[in-house]
Inverse folding.
């Protein structure tokens, strides 16, 4: 079975399950909206401080939403035991993993589709196409890494403890660089409307490629016995 | 089971004596380094006496990175060849590396306070944060090793963390150069040679050698302790199996 | 100056304590 075919099939299966069960997406959406409301009160945000604090709030919410999403991606699988079943097929662990990571990415993007407009409305954040592009870029890398550790943590006794411990340190580069890139994009910098200027964006891309490759290589060892 | 009596045929005791002697040499080397740091090295004109923290701080950082490189190699050896030695070496190095990372981090914080009037709630240094992240990753390595289903699964999962965690090491180093930071730029590897007078470089090298020796001895000790525990466990399990499988009346 | 002392005191305590603990573990024999 071809890699891409398996990957898309697994992702489609996950998303279909989610649409039918309607468990994770509402929870994520609620989390996002709630976080913004609380941030509004906690930081005493107004028209001037909102845009200034936006990059930070964006990544804070995204990181915790990510932990929520990825933890559940593998928890459900484990309960049903369908992961073992999939591994028995000739599909291959890397492709299955890629599918799960893709599914998780789509979920997170759906989150962002709520988060970014909400920020524009409640926090007066300047959300431009450059900001969107940056966030999407970072999401892919975070999702692949997050899913890898979720799969790992799911096999241990303390999954809720281990997922943040493993994922957060390695997400720091994304948050640091992503935050910088979003800052640049939000202050209007960038060539054209589609990408913030130069360095942070390029570094983000580098991180994406690095972590995508590393996660894919490691997936075989995490999923297979 | 009988105790192994101490004496000429007691290999464990001989090992212990060798390692303890090496530890003694390492301590002596550290004392020499102490002399180099506090007596031999000249005082820094700009920062005054507190600059001397640099020597052990950097030496510990290098030792920590070295340990995590060993974790990487051990993890790779396990993943590629099922090497149990690799897994054990990784575990030993992770423990020791964690200790040296702690020393590096705390000395860094203590150094930063008077020099930058550093207030962690107001400024944010890339290198300090990355070092803290490194600490968490290798604590995670040890946690996974302990919390995963024991045996090959735990070794396999921890090895994955050991390999991926090492990716953070370049991030730590390059964070100084890429991200705007308060941390002094590379002093030893600045282009054109070390930006320090020769006696300081000598003091640093002496310290690094002593710390490297200490680090190596500690890893060796922990490896040996783990190896013995694993062997004792294996013996106990084998004993149980013999008892369980001995058929009646044979 | 006090920071210098503090820094090295921390290092000595941590490294010394760890070394001592390691040696103790080494010399503790497992009796079955």
């Amino acid at each position: 079975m071809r890699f891409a075919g398996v990957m898309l099939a697994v992702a489609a299966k996950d998303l279909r399950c989610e649409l039918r069960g309607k468990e994770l997406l509402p929870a994520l959406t609620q989390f996002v909206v709630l976080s913004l409301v609380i941030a509004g009160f906690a930081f005493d945000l107004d028209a001037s401080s909102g845009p200034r604090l936006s990059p930070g709030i964006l990544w804070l919410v995204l990181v915790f939403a990510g932990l929520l999403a990825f933890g559940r991606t593998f928890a459900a699988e484990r309960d049903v035991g369908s992961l073992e079943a999939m591994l028995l097929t000739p599909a291959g662990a890397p492709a299955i993993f890629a599918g799960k990571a893709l599914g998780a990415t789509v979920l997170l993007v759906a989150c962002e589709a709520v988060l970014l407009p909400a920020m524009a409305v409640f926090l007066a954040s300047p959300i431009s196409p450059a900001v969107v592009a940056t966030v999407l870029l970072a999401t892919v890398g975070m999702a692949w890494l997050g899913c890898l550790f979720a799969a790992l943590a799911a096999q241990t006794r303390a999954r809720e403890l281990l997922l943040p411990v493993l994922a957060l340190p390695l997400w720091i580069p994304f948050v640091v660089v992503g935050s910088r890139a979003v800052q640049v994009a939000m202050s209007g910098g960038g060539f054209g409307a589609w990408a913030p200027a130069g360095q942070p964006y390029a570094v983000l891309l580098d991180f994406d490629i690095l972590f995508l490759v590393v996660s894919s290589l490691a997936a075989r060892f995490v999923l297979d016995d | 089971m009988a105790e192994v009596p101490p004496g000429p045929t007691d290999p464990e005791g001989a090992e212990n004596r060798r390692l303890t002697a090496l530890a003694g040499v390492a301590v002596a080397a550290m004392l020499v380094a102490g002399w180099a740091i506090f007596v031999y090295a000249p005082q820094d004109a700009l920062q005054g006496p507190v600059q001397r923290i640099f020597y052990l701080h950097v030496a510990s950082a290098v030792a920590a990175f070295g340990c995590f490189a060993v974790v990487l190699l051990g993890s790779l050896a396990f993943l590629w060849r099922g090497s149990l030695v690799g897994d054990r070496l990784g575990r030993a190095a992770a423990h020791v590396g964690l200790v040296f990372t702690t020393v590096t981090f705390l000395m860094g914080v203590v150094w930063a306070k008077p020099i930058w009037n550093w207030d962690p709630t107001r400024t944010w240094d890339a290198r300090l944060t990355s070092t803290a992240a490194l600490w968490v990753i290798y604590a995670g390595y040890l946690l996974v090793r302990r919390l995963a289903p024991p045996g090959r699964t735990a070794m396999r999962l921890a090895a994955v963390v050991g390999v991926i965690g090492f990716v953070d090491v370049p991030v730590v180093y390059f964070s100084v150069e890429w991200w705007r930071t308060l941390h002094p730029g590379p002093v030893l590897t600045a282009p054109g040679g070390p930006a320090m007078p020769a006696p300081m470089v000598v003091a640093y090298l002496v310290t690094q050698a002593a710390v490297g020796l200490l680090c190596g001895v500690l890893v060796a000790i922990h490896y040996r302790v783990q190896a013995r525990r694993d062997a004792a466990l294996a013996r106990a399990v084998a004993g149980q199996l013999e008892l369980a499988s001995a058929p009646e009346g044979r | 100056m006090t920071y210098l002392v503090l820094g090295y005191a921390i290092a000595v305590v941590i490294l010394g304590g760890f070394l001592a603990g390691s040696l103790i573990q080494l010399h503790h024999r497992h009796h079955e």
